[in-house]
Amino acid sequence: MPTRWASEIREFKDEKTGRTIKQLTSRGNNVHLYFTENSFVQGKNELIFVSDRASGEDKAPHEVPKYSLFRMNLDSGAIEQIADEVLASAHAATKTPDGSLIAYTNLDENVKVLDPASGESRVVYTADRAYRIASVPSIAPNKRYVAFARNEHVDIGIHYLGANYAGFKERFYAIKDGRITLAYTDGSGWLDVFKDTHQLGHFQFAPDDSTLGMFCHEGPWNLVTQRMWYLDFTSREARPCFRQDENDSIGHEFWTQDGYVFFDDRGPGHDGTITSDRTQAVATDVPVNTNALIPFVGLMDRRGNLVRKVEMPYYCNHYHANPDNSLLVGDDVDDLVLIDIAGEKPSLQVLCNHKTSWHTQSSHCHPTWDWDGSRILYASDFGGRVQLYMVEL
């Protein structure tokens, strides 16, 4: 029988806004899927997330907890472990929108596909020790493939799981062999579909096209000269998404539900990071919330056209868009904020005070919308362990 936990849900009033917040977890560290993915299960009142609650260890987020896969029923709050295998990191799993398949990288850096209904899993990619998997596996809409970025393994003398983006700049310069790898979900094989001379990351299939993906040249935003790329799996050709010039510092791209690529451009001197000291990790001479130019967010169509540009005179580390791209949720230094972008000028409203430390990737808030735009999920390590929180709108 799978291991289960009773509901840990409690409600409290946010001290800054008075809004009701639901704390969903309280035991161990609990992290939702990466913000380019979505923990909410479409068509069910459930979440898929990762936790170290079954590890038998009590570790702080920076002590490399042993995460595995869990499901939460949001009606009852009941939590169930759906796989006991240890994941490579807190952000090593994804799922189909309906939760019928889960893909993840295990501690041995094999990529596996799990059918949660049957509990059966299979290896679809076997680790190559010369490379490190560099992005969450992404499942194609047809459910026949998963794909991910992997980079040559380089020794930079810094632990790559260290807090506050340890080795972020060093890996950017050291890695000269990056690949996008595709594996068949039936376990019949895998292949490299694209090879590059840069560190790669953030691979994501388009939500409605199994022949089209998007990836990034990873690294400090102010050092990367062309961040976002489309990848055509039929021709195996890459083409630039938003074409950068010298003033652009771009990142945190994701596919919107209606098939656009959303991105954040903060302007010169921004490396895309925030540390627990509330500074940047690489471009330390520029405060995180100071901009030489007015930053903006944009929406790109798959032909490389900028279809929407919204000046964004605020600071957020990540954004996520609601279903019709009219409202953003963002995590600024201290608060979660809602930004209405339906009109000509954006307007901001503080949602709640997240209180996270920013000390590790797992403690980044990474706020994400439910599929229908009615709820927002986020993480915070306030109190010493990462927990999940939800705001109902």
Sequence-ordered SSE layout with sheet pairings:
Layout (H helix, E strand, L loop, with lengths): L3 E2 L4 E4 L6 E4 L6 E3 L13 E6 L16 E6 L5 E5 L9 E3 L6 E4 L5 E5 L4 E6 L5 E3 L4 E2 L5 E8 L15 H7 L3 E7 L5 E7 L3 E7 L2 E9 L10 E5 L4 E4 L9 E6 L5 E5 L30 E5 L5 E6 L7 E3 L5 E5 L3 E6 L6 E7 L14 E2 L5 E6 L6 E6 L1
Antiparallel strand pairs: 1-7, 2-3, 3-31, 4-5, 5-6, 6-7, 8-9, 9-10, 10-11, 12-14, 13-14, 14-15, 15-16, 17-18, 18-19, 19-20, 21-22, 22-23, 23-24, 25-26, 26-27, 27-28, 29-30, 30-31
Overall description:
This protein is mostly beta strands. It has one helix and 31 strands. Strand 15 and strand 16 (190-196) form a beta hairpin. The longest helix is centred in the middle third of the chain and has 7 residues, at 168-174. The two termini are 36 Å apart. The relative contact order is 0.13.
Features:
five-stranded antiparallel sheet; 1 helix; 393 residues; globular; 40% strand; single chain; mainly beta
What is the CA-CA span between the terminal residues?
36 Å
Structural class: mainly beta
Shape: globular
- Major β-sheet profile: 5 strands, antiparallel
Helical residue percent band: under 10%
* Overall average pLDDT: 94
Oligomer: single chain
Query: What proportion strand?
Result: 35-45%
Query: How many β-strand stretches?
Result: 31
Low-confidence stretches: none
State the helix count.
1
Strand arrangement in the largest pleated sheet:
1-7-6-5-4
Radius of gyration: 20 Å
